[in-house]
Amino acid sequence: MESTGSRQVVMEIFSMIALHQSAVRAAQRSAFHSAIQPATHPVEYQGWSYHAPGKQIPSYFTQLLDYASSDMSFAPRAKRVIEFAETTLTWSIPNVTGICKDCEQKGRPCGFSSQRRQAFCKHHGSSVKVIAATSSVATFVVLLLTAATALYRSLKSKVDEEVRLKIEMFLKAYGTSKPTRYTFSEVKKATRRFKDKLGQGGFGSVYKGQLTNGVPVAVKMLENLKGDGQEFINEVSTIGRIHHANVVRLLGFCSEGTRRALIYQFMPKGSLDSYIFAHESDICRELLTPSKMLEIASGIARGIEYLHQGCNQRILHFDIKPHNILLDHSFTPKISDFGLAKLCAREHSIVTLTAARGTMGYIAPELYSRNFGRISSKSDVYSFGMLVLEMVSGRRNSDPWIENKNEVYIPEWIYEKMNTEQELEPTREMAQDEKEVVRKLAIVALWCIQWNPKNRPSMPKVLNMLTGSLMDLTMPPKPFVSSPGHLMPRI
Predict the structure, then answer these.
(1) Which residues form the Protein kinase domain (predicted)?
(2) Fewer C-beta neighbours within 10 Å, C or N terminus of the chain?
(3) Domain boundary among 65, 89, 113
(4) How many Å from the N-terminal Cα to the C-terminal Cα in the chain?
(5) How many domains does the chain have?
(6) Distance from C-alpha of 185 to C-alpha of 182, rounded to nearest angstrom
């Protein structure tokens, strides 16, 4: 332990080193090369000598050596300080050195709190334990996510393979009557790598394309497949061999791995909904004149009649709505999107479903509850009636922007207009015969949406009503209230 005089001498050395700092950093003994005056003999002390030819010993250095004779342990320290610029630092805050030495003896790290201005011993390995615990949890989570991802991919791969085998078995059993099968590379080429998107459907996107023979087509990529590929099978099995003027024609398909596409004839006028709800698009509603609406309604009715009675098997569409009615260059309507279709024998008029299918607003009540009746071809008649009501009013069947909030339900609103002989579109100038056409369409549609399926007409009767005279039609009961006193008029 150094005495008080030793510490003072050390402080003098620090001052001397500060005065000659540049020389000390240059090289050994350089601290004094520039500080002493000429001398002719070396300085010797305790076996250590300093010789600087032509230099003289400074007085403070001589005093330092004199003091060194009283403290024999000081010489080596002074030699190291002068030769190697070795310094010893001590804490200005009391007890720091002692506490840290005590921590070192206990094998624990020493810490210092700037707030308490006091040293303390850290708990050995506490931070390591926290880091180790955090790392363990993170590793477990990563391993769990990796395992879950691997399991999901394995199950998905297995399901995809089962769906692929199911579709291949169907196509093999379907025979040579199926449309042309294309590879995915051919589909990409036909659509120019899916460059021109026409729209978005319930099961995927539709793109414009062109076959190698120059025929324009619409390609629907089934992107949002659910279940076991039944949507694809429904489309191919229903319209794959149907040729009717009011049903869109399926020209080909693609089934390659998990990629599936349906290739239809291209309809240049798009879908009917863009003309009905013209305020939602750039298309003018004036194109839908009363006579054009009657032609479109009659064409849709003929297409549905063909599906119900003209095919080898009865086809129930279950998703008749304006979006699924496509128009060719002459506004001829064509029914499309058979992803929800159901096949049944022609002699069976009743079908069984495990769940409701279709689009809200167009789904018949019996599809929600069997209390309204049994599911049959009359379910498509209901959807057709809702479509016609939207077409004659230009409003969606649950349109919220009708002036009177009590008349939001479109069927009720139209029924009251018809019952009081008011015009549906008073701002639109129409001739008397055009007004009669609109009234006829509305009355037929109200018959089609009767809640009781037995009160709805079949599609052949609907066609007779559309082509017949307005004078032959009677107002139906309110379609939103059961009225057993009213029966379907015989036409």
Answers:
(1) 192-481
(2) N
(3) 89
(4) 125
(5) 2
(6) 8
Residue where a domain stops, chosen among 89, 121, 153: 89
Using an 8 Å Cβ cutoff, are 221 and 240 in contact?
A: no
* Sequence-ordered list of residues with C-beta below 8 angstroms from that of 392, at least 6 positions apart, any chain: 293, 414, 424, 438, 441, 442, 445
Q: Is residue 331 part of a domain?
A: yes
Structural domain harbouring 477: 269-491
**Measured on CA atoms in the order 60, 65, 70, 75, is the torsion positive or negative?**
positive
Residue 147 maps to a domain: no
At 192 the pLDDT is 93
385 is a domain residue: yes
Task: Look up residue 40 and give its amino acid.
Answer: T
pTM of this prediction? 0.64
96 lies in a domain?
no
Could you state, in chain order, the average pLDDT of each consecutive group of 10 residues for the chain (491 residues)? 47 52 44 42 45 49 50 57 54 66 76 72 61 77 86 72 70 68 93 90 84 93 68 79 90 86 92 84 78 96 94 90 94 91 76 78 89 90 96 77 56 89 79 93 96 94 95 88 41 33
Query: CA-CA distance, 409 to 390, in Å (whole number)?
Result: 11
pLDDT at 242: 83
Rg, the chain, Cα only: 47
Check whether 208 is labelled as a binding-site residue: no
The catalytic residue among 273, 319, 337, 380 is 319
Q: What is the pLDDT of residue 142?
A: 87
The CATH number that applies at residue 370 is 1.10.510.10
319 is catalytic: yes
pLDDT of the residue at 391: 94
For 350, which DSSP code? B
41: left (phi over 0), alpha (psi -120 to 50) or beta: beta
